[in-house]
Amino acid sequence: MFKLLKEVLRTGEATVKYPFAPVEVAKDFRGKPEHQAANCIACAACTVACPANALGMETDAGAGTRTWSINYGRCVFCGRCEEVCPTDAIRLTPDFELAVAVKADLVRTAVFRLAPCVACGKPFAPEKEVAYVTALIEATAPSEADAERRRQLVATCPACKRAHDLGQIAGSRVVRAMETSR
Amino acid sequence: MTRHITETDVRAAGPFAKIDTPADVVRMKSALLKDIRRSAYVYRVDCGGCNACEIEIFASITPVFDAERFGIKVVASPRHADILLFTGAVTRSMRMPALRAYEAAPDPKIVVSYGACGVSGGIFHDLYCVWGGTDKILPVDVYIPGCPPTPAATVYGFAVALGLLGQKLKAETHVQAEGERVAVAHPSIPYNLRVLVEREARRMAGYRQGGDIAEKFLVMLEQPGLVPLTDRMSTFAAAETDPRVAEILARLGDVVTEAIA
Question: Which residue of A59, A71, A74, A114 is the best one to mutate when testing the B interface, meaning the one whose CB has the most B CBs within 10 A?
Fold first, then answer.
């Protein structure tokens, strides 16, 4: 009896105090992904990387907005979004207390505006993404003329770029001969 | 079996009538919660999960997390259960057994949807043979996300289900503010050098940790000072206690020296 009590005292208490006291979380624990919308450029790299489609991006061309969303209920906490994010806008936190009674509370959204194309004026890419890429190419451009050319390129929508290329090719009078010999 | 049905309820409902309007269900559930505060019997229904959720459920009733402190007990039959715990994405063949377990449990009962698959189908949400979540076939009271939820998350989820703790998450919407812009990180370091440093760190330490190490290194590079760059880099690497990180920092120093030369 005495021996048993001694053993009990020696072993101590194994049970953690949680939920009455915070529980110790392991280093690099992958918990709730926290999105800093102010740092996000809405490039959609995370939505492409997400294996469970917990992250989504919807474009409303009429309103000129793009809505980013995360569904914590579908997230598998793999951390791919964190890896691909070019601006560190999404990071996994050690927060694991995600249980909810209302399913709608598992969804978080962020609405971003689209920038208009300089040629046709139609919205085509997020404003913040265009501004970020412009800043980046200005920093890396070899000359001022080159920087201006690249700025125009970034601010033009793909359809206008294609139309412009067609015009260039038609104007350059490339002589084409039919392939006749065999 | 129904609980807390008074004589007047029965008289108002008439002979052979069921008492199952939404208001009745809410009232009976709150009465049930009051009754089972210190003794909640849980039956676990696997609707096609991968068993990771089951492992975590059993981890949460082991002595370390000891869910039995709160009277939570896992029982072997749905007929003994107050709380039904549904795991898995509800596959086509497990749909009927899940419904049978739900019907077998005495009314009123609390349904908890467990794990990413149970909450919304998780990574399997668009499979041809998957219903995609417990709430597609049954009314769910509490959702516990996670893949799988840790034992602590499980304990928290049960505390929410039993009304001991409130939920923390709230639906939020951010709308882009006027003039909101993202600045390029480390503007004083040439972009090509930054790419080289990040690539080398990630090659050696993996994507996430490599990125963190590169970030630390770039912050050090950016600091203005009169000390020569090579000396600063070597003291920074020498100050690191983890030999693996120190090796990577030394290699990053070499990358910068090569790029400058």
Answer: A74
